[in-house]
Write a structure and sequence with these properties.
Blueprint lengths: L5 E2 L7 H20 L1 H18 L1 H20 L18 H12 L2 H16 L10 H14 L2 H8 L2 H9 L8 H4 L1 H4 L6 H37 L5 H20 L1 H27 L2 H23 L10 H27 L5 H32 L5 H7 L2 H9 L5 H31 L7 E2 L2 H21 L2 H10 L1 H23 L20
Parallel strand pairs: 1-2
Helix pairs in contact: 1-2, 1-11, 2-21, 3-7, 3-15, 3-16, 4-13, 4-15, 4-16, 5-6, 5-16, 5-19, 6-14, 6-16, 7-15, 7-16, 8-15, 8-22, 11-12, 11-15, 11-18, 11-19, 11-20, 11-21, 11-22, 12-13, 12-19, 12-20, 13-19, 14-16, 15-19, 15-22, 19-20
Length: 526
C-alpha cells in the first residue's frame, strides 16, 4: 500500500513550548538529584499523600475509562471514521495493533511479567492469607487485572479526541491542547493551552525516566550475569548508550522505515520467548492457571476496580492499583498522541475494540505464561521467590527465575536483547511524539523533522544518564507518577471536547439523523 506520510522538513520548533518544558523538568529534577535524601523523603511523603487521599479519584477514573470507551464504541458514533470516507488505513490491522502494543508496553512488561505474580503470593489483598493456595490463584489474576482492560482504556481515551481533531477537524498541531478546542476554543491557543502542553511534555519525560530506571539496571544485570562481570556504572552507561543509539537510528528513518521496523523485531523476539517458556515450562499448569485467572477476573473486576480498602488500610491499593493507574495516566499523553497519529482511516469502534481487546490479550498472554511459570516455581518449591523478593533487587530475582529455564545460556541474552529493543521502541515513540508536540505546524499526514526527534532522543539519554550517575532516579519516578493527577482533568476536558464535536457533526447521540452526515462535509476548526 502506498504510504502518504511525509516529513514536515520546513516546520519550525515552538520554542515557547519546548524551552519551558525543559526548564520545568530541570527545576524539578536537579534538586531531587542534588538533595537525594531530603528529596526522596519529600516526594515519597507527597506521593503517599496523593495515593491515600485521592485513590478514590484514580479508581473512579480508571473505571470511567473502561465504561466510557465500551459505550462509545457501541453507540451510533462508533462508525465515525478518523478521516474522509475515502481514507484507507496506512497500516495493516496486524501491524497497526503491533505498533500500538509495542509503543505502550515495553520494558515494563518484560520486567514485571516474571516478577509481579510472585510478589502477590506473599502480599495478597482482601484478607487472603499470604503464601496460601488462594494467594497463588489470585497472583495469577492480579497481574492480568493491572495490565489489562483498565490500563489500555486509560491509554486509549486521549487517542479518540486527538485523532478526531487532526484527521477529521484537520487541526494542524498534534497536541493535547488542540484536542481541547471543542471546549476551550481560542483559549487552547493561549496560556491555558501552553500550560496543558507543558504538563503533557513533562509527564512524557518523567514516564521515560521511569522506564529507563527499570530497564538499564535490568539489562546491565543480565549482561553482567551472562558475561561474568560485576554491576558497575560503566556497564549501565554502556547499556544506556545502546538504548540511545538504537533509538536515534529508528527515529531518524521516521515512522514508516524506522519505528515500524523496530516494532517488527520486538514482536518476533517476544513471540519466541513466549512460546519457548510455554513449551519448556509447565504447559498444563500455565494453561489451567490462565483459565482460572480469567474466571477470577470476570468475577472480581468491578470489586477490584473500586476497591479502596477503607477499613483495613493494608496499603495494597495504593502500592499496586493506584500506582499503576497513575503511571498509565502519566504515559497516556505519549500513547494518545502516537495512536492517534497511526489511526487515520480507522473508525472509533475499530480503535476501541483493537486497543482494549487485542492489546489487553497481548498483556494477558505474557502474564499467563511468564507469570504462570514463576508461580509454578514458588508453589512447587523449586525456587523460593517470596524470600528472594525480600532479599534481592527485582532484576536479580528475574535473573534467578531465568536461570531455572532450559538453555538459559541462550535465553538470558535473547531476553536481554528483547529488553533492549523493547525500551528502544518505546523511547522512539516518545521522541517521535515529543518532536510532534514542539513543532509549530504538523498535519495528520506529516511526520516531524527527523533532527527534532533525534535531538529529543539525545536529551532523554542525557537526562537519564544524570539520574543514573547520581542515584536520583527513584525520586523522579515518584514525581512523574504524581503528574497523573492533573492529567485526569485535562483528559476529561478532551473527552468533553470530543463529545461536543460529535454532537455538532453527527447529531445527538439519542437521535439518528434521517440523512447521515458525510465526514467530508465537516468544517475544519479554525
Amino acid at each position: 500500500m502506498k504510504q502518504t506520510n511525509t516529513s514536515c522538513k520546513s516546520a519550525a520548533i515552538d520554542k515557547t513550548l519546548m524551552i519551558p518544558s525543559l526548564i520545568v523538568t530541570l527545576l524539578i529534577s536537579i534538586p531531587l538529584v542534588v538533595f537525594q535524601e531530603q528529596g526522596t523523603k519529600m516526594v515519597t511523603m507527597i506521593f503517599n499523600g496523593f495515593t491515600f487521599n485521592f485513590k478514590w479519584l484514580f479508581l473512579i477514573y480508571g473505571f470511567f475509562c473502561v465504561t466510557f470507551i465500551i459505550w462509545l464504541s457501541f453507540s451510533k458514533w462508533g462508525k465515525v471514521k478518523f478521516g474522509a470516507p475515502e481514507d484507507k488505513p496506512e497500516y495493516s490491522t496486524y501491524k497497526w495493533i503491533a505498533m500500538m502494543f509495542c509503543a505502550g508496553i515495553g520494558i515494563s512488561l518484560a520486567r514485571w511479567a516474571f516478577f509481579e505474580p510472585a510478589a502477590y503470593i506473599g502480599n495478597p489483598p482482601m484478607g487472603i492469607v499470604p503464601n496460601s493456595s488462594e494467594a497463588a490463584e489470585w497472583a495469577g489474576m492480579l497481574g492480568q487485572f493491572h495490565w489489562g482492560l483498565t490500563p489500555w482504556s486509560i491509554y486509549a481515551l486521549p487517542a479518540f479526541p486527538i485523532a478526531y481533531a487532526i484527521h477529521v477537524k484537520k487541526l494542524s498541531a498534534l497536541r493535547f491542547s488542540t484536542a481541547c478546542k471543542g471546549i476551550l476554543g481560542k483559549k487552547a491557543d493561549g496560556i491555558i493551552g501552553k500550560i496543558i502542553d507543558v504538563l503533557v511534555i513533562f509527564g512524557m519525560i518523567g514516564g521515560i525516566g521511569t522506564s529507563l530506571g527499570l530497564a538499564v539496571p535490568l539489562v546491565s544485570a543480565l549482561i553482567a550475569h551472562f558475561m561474568g562481570l560485576s554491576q558497575s556504572v560503566f556497564l549501565q552507561m554502556a547499556v544506556l548508550l545502546a538504548f540511545v543509539g538504537i533509538t536515534c537510528i529508528s527515529v531518524f528513518f521516521g515512522l514508516q522505515k524506522g519505528i515500524a521496523k523496530l516494532y517488527d523485531i520486538k514482536t518476533y523476539l517476544a513471540y519466541f520467548l513466549l512460546v519457548f517458556v510455554l513449551i519448556a515450562g509447565p504447559t498444563i499448569f500455565i494453561l489451567n492457571t490462565w483459565v482460572n485467572s480469567i474466571g477470577l477476573m470476570v468475577q472480581n473486576f468491578i470489586r477490584l476496580s473500586l476497591f479502596t480498602d477503607p477499613i483495613s488500610h493494608t496499603g495494597f491499593t495504593e502500592s499496586w492499583t493506584v500506582f499503576y493507574w497513575s503511571w498509565w495516566i502519566s504515559y497516556s499523553p505519549m500513547m494518545g498522541l502516537f495512536v492517534a497519529k497511526i489511526s487515520k482511516g480507522r473508525t472509533i469502534r475499530e480503535l476501541a475494540i483493537c486497543e482494549l481487546t487485542f492489546a489487553s490479550l497481548g498483556n494477558w498472554m505474557f502474564f499467563a505464561v511468564w507469570g504462570g511459570y514463576s508461580i509454578n516455581l514458588q508453589v512447587n518449591n523449586i525456587l523460593n521467590l517470596t524470600q528472594l523478593i525480600k532479599e534481592l533487587p527485582p532484576e536479580q530475582t528475574i535473573v534467578a527465575i531465568l536461570n531455572t529455564l532450559p538453555l538459559e545460556w541462550l535465553i538470558i541474552p535473547v531476553y536481554a536483547i528483547l529488553c533492549l529493543v523493547f525500551l528502544s521502541g518505546t523511547i522512539s515513540s516518545s521522541a517521535y511524539t515529543l518532536a510532534s508536540q514542539v513543532q509549530k505546524k504538523i498535519s495528520g499526514d506529516e511526520e516531524p523533522r527527523s533532527i527534532i526527534s533525534v535531538t529529543w532522543t539525545i536529551l532523554l539519554g542525557i537526562y537519564a544518564a544524570g539520574l543514573l550517575l547520581t542515584g536520583g532516579i527513584t525520586s523522579v519516578q515518584l514525581s512523574s507518577v504524581m503528574l497523573g493527577f492533573p492529567l485526569i482533568f485535562i483528559t476529561i476536558i478532551m473527552v468533553m471536547s470530543l463529545m461536543k464535536w460529535l454532537h455538532e457533526d453527527y447529531g445527538p447521540i439519542l437521535k439518528t439523523p434521517k440523512i447521515a452526515l458525510d465526514p467530508k462535509d465537516i468544517k475544519p476548526v479554525k
